[in-house]
Amino acid sequence: MHIYQLAIIDQKLKEAMAKFSLLPAHTSIFDAALFEQLLDDSRVLIKTYISLLKSLQILPKENHYYKGHSLIKHTVNGAEADGTIDPDYLTVIQNLVLPHLVGNSSDKKQIFPIHIHFTTSTEVYLFSGIGLYKQDESRVYSLLHEMSMPVNYISYASHAKCNYLLSIFYTEEYNERQSIHTLYPRYNISYLQFRKDCKICLGTTFYNFYMKMKMLDVLDDIMLTNLSLKEIAHKNNFSSYIAMHQLFKRKYNFPLYIIPRILNGSN
């Protein structure tokens, strides 16, 4: 996997966790049942992402990636985890959460996303999940899922040369009805160089990678909204529900019916 692919899908997962943090939850009752439900739902979200990314041949299938979860209790005086977590990582997570514990309580969100990386000489670690602010205790509970990937899975080939591809993904208003030949000339890149850069940095053609990222948008909508599948197809500019269904089922063997509808409680 190239570092550019990793950066793009990491941003997608970060955005998905932010959407998850906005889902309605009965935060008037902070109890074990609420924690367990949010932990289970966020675990389903992450594992479904991993499963689709494997089917899309973006993540190598031989690695499990998902390592487990942690519940961390935060106060202004420090943090305490219910399991084993590197003390240095715990300190960084505490510093990330601390702004939610200080300041004006009226401005604080009861649920907020957490997404942070750590790198060692052999592994890249990702902790992703949510924090729950319990005002009456002046405490935050972090429900975090740990993932990791061996460093040797990641390629940095032609790293600096491909910056313009990220610009296209994040700033251009591209859609599949638009010719790709409108994209690269503004960066003074030839078509042959564009194709080569896409193969190296995205692992496939620009169009194929774009469609894979579009499938992640569909995944978000199925899991985190109550829109019908036809509405989701229209929202994501598919010509029809059948076209969306065929892309998932026929091309990547990932049928839509296996995607859990978290908002509807059908996971």
TrEMBL record:
It comes from the Bacteria. GO terms for molecular function: DNA-binding transcription factor activity; sequence-specific DNA binding. Residues 164-253 form the HTH araC/xylS-type domain. InterPro entries: HTH_AraC (IPR018060). This is HTH araC/xylS-type domain-containing protein. It comes from Chryseobacterium pennae.
